[in-house]
Each structure stands twice: as structure tokens, then as C-alpha cells.
Fold each of these.
Amino acid sequence: MATAAGTVAAGTKAAEPDLVLRGVLTGADHHTYRSVPFTVPEGVERVTITFDYTGKEEHSVIDLGLLGPDGALRGWSGGSKRLFTVSSVDATPSFIPAPVAPGQWALLLGVPNLRKTAEASYTAQVYFSRSLAAADEPPPLRVPVRSGAAWYRGDLHMHTGHSDGSCVNQSSVSVPCPLFLTVQAAAERKLDFIAVTEHNTVSHASELRELQPYFSKMLLMPGREITTFSGHANMFGTLAPLDFRVAATPDGWNRMLDQAATLGGLVSINHANRPSGEACMGCGWTNDADIAKVQAIEAVNGTDADTLLSSIPFWQAQLQRGLHPTLIGGSDDHRAARGDTPVGTPTTVVYAPELTQTAILDGIRAGHVFVDIAGNGSRLLELNAETGGRQAMMGDSLAAPGGLTVQFKLHVAQADGATIKLVMDGAEADLLPARDVDGDDVQRSFNWISDGKPHWLRAEVRDARGHLLLLGNPVYLNR
Ligand SMILES: [Zn+2]
Ligand SMILES: [Zn+2]
């Protein structure tokens, strides 16, 4: 993408631990505690530890805790955790989020059982992360929820009781809604990933870590909705603090977006075309931010696609300005799927090599995305281009010198009876031999002879009543 941000590359974290702590416990250690010291250097934001030991067949048991540099107990997991992480923002259950100060820390080993003649060899792998960016999480925290390249379906915008999400309690009173209910609703919708985006806070990050092992088929990503008096924008990919009080400083939005990029954040402008007022304070995009500094635009918010509130024209206007912000969608669910725009409506569908946070975010940065407006779970829209042996998918750029023929392939699934529309540079393009979708799996090919100039071409699919079903990112030509 031709945008300024995206400076934190995924997959850069070394696979090797920073420290490996090994030792042997014997029968003499039965019913004792042992501290295993290690040094946390300056500049570390997250400590992640994996732990294992031998001798379980002899009923050897080693419990696990963590002591901070002041000797304070930072958590105790007994024998229940072999992997944990702690940072100032989040921690694995059993452990306490708190700032990671440099100095001498210790693993605290408890020995509830070790037979007189037994020996247990333990190994702890210690990983230090120097930022709270997802891309800097160590490999044990980045195990894919699913492997393999695929279109992954998710929802990138929702609120729970960690901000203003509410639901009715046992006494029929509206209360801050437990996060679990929203995640459960997303799982019932069979989504592959969700991002929970609370207003200006990431207090939900620990709870997502707690829920992730239970929701083993759905990737849970922490995000936040940067919520200001002059616009809302989601940020994904980092748990680092970000000062959202842009009204207090001149050029505040641009400074904040620069900081977001430094932190490894992916920023999406939300519901840009909403009116701002007492009904929705700061909801409209009324600031002077340089939109080249954002990576995505939530052009579909809930069910607004075919309404006057749609932000699709706002997104398209940025394409016309020469920018490449990725089209995404978000339900903005506030009611654990019991409201008008339940989680999954719309669904953002991302092509990614695996189901991890960094892979999904990189797929969004690359524009490998279409939006399934109703989120029906199986609709597909693909637009691919090829010329001179070079290929491009939605979001990619293809160089096509003047006179060269570009071959396009369009693939629409599960939209029988619908109609395809192509849009080039903001106007409908008459390039398709047949616009009707006559079947559950339809492929169309067409050619375009390049004039050598910069263009963008996108596809959309509408049902028989003209309602939008699928909306894809453009293939960019010569830009
Ligand atoms: Zn908002
Ligand atoms: Zn929101």
C-alpha cells in the first residue's frame, strides 16, 4: 500500500527465546519453594514465559509463579499454566498486569510433590518484547488459530461492558454487558475473527487472552475505537497507550496518527458520514487529518450501506484522490448481538496466509479484503487481474503500460440472482460480457486495454431489489 504507515513489519520477531532457564529438582525439594532469578533488561514492555518439566509419569509436580524486581508476587498459576505473559496492559489469567520494570525477576517454583528418589528437570523459555505491538509478540503467543491461506470472515468493530456496550441483567436492568456474551454471539455466527474495539481503552485485552483458549476456532483481537470530539477511528495491532485528546493540540489528529503508526497501529476511519450532534457526539469525520496516514476506512457500518449515512462515497473520494485506504466494515454492535446491528453484520472478509492477528492485519493493510454486507457466512467476491505474467488481487497494484491487455477474472459465490457492477475511477464501467449472477458459483472474464494511466477498478454485487450484497476493494492499475 502507498500509505505512510505500516512501519512495523509482521513476522520480524525472532523465534528464539531471549533466555532459557534450566534446572533440576530432586526429592530433597519436596514441599519447598525455589526462586529462579533472571534479569529483565531496560526497554522491555512484555515478558512471556513457557515452562515445562520432566517426571510427570512419576507424579512429579512443579507449580509456577512470578516475582517482580521488588520481590512482589506477580501471579501464581499453580500447575495450570505452561505459558503466560505479563505487560502493563494485559496478563494471562493467574498473573497480574503491571508495568514491566527492569531488574532481577524470578520464577517461583513450588514443589507439592516430588518422590524421594525422583528427579524433575525443568526448562523455562523467557521472551522479551520491546513494544506492545502485536507484531512484537513472541511465537508462543502467535500460534495460528488456523493454518493455511484462506478468506477469513470477521467483524472489526464492537463494544462490550468495557465501554458502552449494554445488556439486560437477571433483574431486567440494563447493565454493562459482559464481554463473553459478545464473543459467544460471534462464535455462534461462525466468524473466524473478531476485534473488540472499546472507546479509548484496551482494558478488555486480558479478558480476550482468557477467552482465546476456550474459543479455539475464532481469533480474538484487541482493538480500540479512538473516540474524539471530531471523529472516530479504530486502531488495531497495538495495546500501547495513545492519547486521544486531539482537541487539546493544534494538528492533533495528524500527530496522533503519526504516533499510532510508530506504535504499529492500523487505523481505520469509522462511520465518517454520520452527523455529529447530541444523538452521536463526535461521530462524523469533521477534522483535518491527512487521510494518507490511515490504512483503512470502515465504509460499511452496521446496516448503513444503502442509506444516506453510508460512508462508501467518503471511501471512494479518497480513492479518487490517489489514496489506497482499504475498505472494511464493522457491526458496531453494542448489545451482544441483541440489537439492530448484531456482531457479524457486516462481515469483513480478509485473505490471509493463516489465522493470526498479524496475518489478518497485514491482509487488511494489503487491501486483500471484501465486505459481505449481510454477513451470510459463505458469499464470495474475488477480482483478479493479470498481464504479462504478473498477477494482482483486490488491493494489489498492477503496472500496465499503454496498449497492454489486462485480463480480469471475477468470481462470485452464493449470490444467485444478483447483479454484478464494475466501477472504474468512480463511474460504472461497461466491461462485463454478462452482469447477471446465474448460479451459486459464477466466474466471469473480461479484458481491458490499458491506456497507461492510473486507474482503480472495483466490483460490487447487488440483489434483485438493488441492495448491496458484496463490495470489494479495487485492483489498482499504474498506481
Ligand atoms: Zn464510533
Ligand atoms: Zn463504535
Amino acid sequence: CLTLNHTLILNFVTCDVVAGPGQWEALCSYLSLPSNLLQVYSSQRVVMEPLVHRWCCHPGVRQTLLGGGVIVRFPRESNRLIELPEDYSVLINQASSFTCPRSGGDKSRAPTLCLVCGAILCSQSYCCQTEVDGEDVGACTAHTFTCGAGLGLFLRVRESQVLFVAGKSKGCFYPPPYLDDYGETDQGLKRGNPLHLCHERYRKIERLWRQHGVAEVIGHAQEANQTLVTIDWQHL
Ligand SMILES: [Zn+2]
Ligand SMILES: [Zn+2]
């Protein structure tokens, strides 16, 4: 147990997880360790000495102590949604030059951008329906199974609308991260004022995705608005 705690604490120290006043003490007390590690060493010499010795003999550590090599492999960076352009017209232009991959160069009716990988899909159209487990699904739903294990976040470019889909039957719309000069979204692009990326809103969407909150948002939206339940999400 001490070995485990020790390793844990080393990981925490080296990964810079412990930051801010009181955090170190809190962590040590959680692990039932004194906050002064030298105390552990002197009180548990019999256990600690072979442990430290073994650690120092590890070829990776040894190499680093001799200069060169990496002791700490830092944790992977958090996943991020794709970068979006500041100016919405860039997306409109991209979408209008996008053609349906299945219809020999025809324009797509509802070009839709995957916010996870950046792919543009030909949504809401028979041409790009495929079969998943014996059921016809639209390009977006099909894409979620290869890109997000059944969960997808999209931007419907012509509507300026974010689309969340979960599984084949659940989905909802979400306010887009683009605002006009008055701080308003323009869902449906009816007013046509220039739109700019609102980083704060986009980060909020990213946080939802990272913290696995998208399915919950869909659930709440469907409870609050029964018409959402009747939308044929799987064909989007
Ligand atoms: Zn994707
Ligand atoms: Zn198509």
C-alpha cells in the first residue's frame, strides 16, 4: 500500500497536478501520508530504502540520472474540438464549395461540419444515407459511429445551428458559437448580419463534450420540448 501511495504521490508531484495552497496537504492526508515526505522516509526506512533503491535502478531513471532520457511522460493533452474560423463567412464559403461525395459533384443541400474531426458531411439527404445495423441512417448519424462512438456534435452551416446527436434516435439543437455585433445568434441565418466566433460559447460546448454532458443536454431538451422527440434524428 505504501508503494502504491508513494507511486501515486510521485505521479502527482511530477505531473504538476498538485497546485495551489493547501492542495499538497489535502492530497497527503487523503493518502494517509505526512505532508513532509522526509518523515515517511525516516519513519519507514526499512520499506523506503529498497523502494528508492529499486526506483533509482530502473533503466529509464538511471539513464536520465546519467543525463538524457525522459523520466516523466506528461499526461496526454485534453481532447479539443476543431478550431473554428473567426468569421462565419469562411465557413459559408467552405460549405458552398462542398459537393456531395456520392452524387457526382452535386451541391449538398445541408452541408454539416463535424466539430470533432472537421469533416463536412452531406446531411439530411437520401444520397448519403447508409445502413447501420440494418437501418438507414443519414450521413451525420452514420458518422457518429465512426467518429464519436455514437455521439456527435455538428454545425449545420447553412442554418448556423449546432446539432447534438446521440445514438440513432436522440438529438437536439444547441445555440451556435457565432454571434452578430449585437451579441445575438442567427439560427436559420435569417437576418444575415456578419457573425463572429464567440470563444466563450465554443469553450462551453467543448466542456460539455469533454465532460460527457452532451447526452444530458439532449435529454433535458427533449423533456422540455416534446416536438424534438418527433424529429427523425437518424436521417440527419
Ligand atoms: Zn467527425
Ligand atoms: Zn449526399
